[in-house]
Amino acid sequence: MKHLKDILCSLVAVVAALSFTACSEDLSSVAGRWEVTSTDICDVHTDYATGQGDIYLFESGGTYTISDPSGKTVAQGEWEYNDANGTLTLWSDPEANVGGTYYVDQLDAYTMLLSFDFGFTYGEIKMARRPKTNSRD
């Protein structure tokens, strides 16, 4: 029975490794440094000038950090992009108030548009891809 358990554990590890490898292309499309350019939250629209929006840094390993315009980290955690249903899920400290599942309405080399409806709040976040050259990273 112990031998069967070892085989099962090995099989689970192989499937997990294959799943991560298969998803790596999805990770690379979201992975990178994104700056918030505008938000529409509960019907309030705000535009941000370059350098004034929060920075979302999505690492290819599945972790992320959000920093404010001064460079202070305001949230960090893990993320997962599901291309099949077009969602981006963020996990973080509940006090950070950013965790949840967002719908990816647009994703290309330059723009990511996320929408969400958490019941108590709803809206859109538009971001532009930025190079990793700023000291805010």
Share of helical residues: 10-25%
What is the oligomeric state here? single chain
Q: What order do the SSEs take from the amino end to the carboxyl end, as H and E?
A: HEEEEEEEEE
Main sheet record: 8 strands, antiparallel, barrel
Kindly list the characteristics that best describe this protein.
alpha+beta, 1 helix, 46% strand, globular, disordered N terminus
Describe the fold and architecture.
- 21% of the residues lie in helices and 46% in strands.
- The termini are far apart.
- It contains one helix and nine strands.
- An eight-stranded antiparallel β-barrel has the order 1-3-4-5-6-7-8-9.
- By secondary structure, it is an alpha+beta fold.
SSE topology:
Elements: H1 2-30, E1 32-41, E2 44-47, E3 55-58, E4 63-67, E5 73-82, E6 87-92, E7 100-107, E8 111-117, E9 122-130
Summary, kept brief:
21% of the residues lie in helices and 46% in strands.
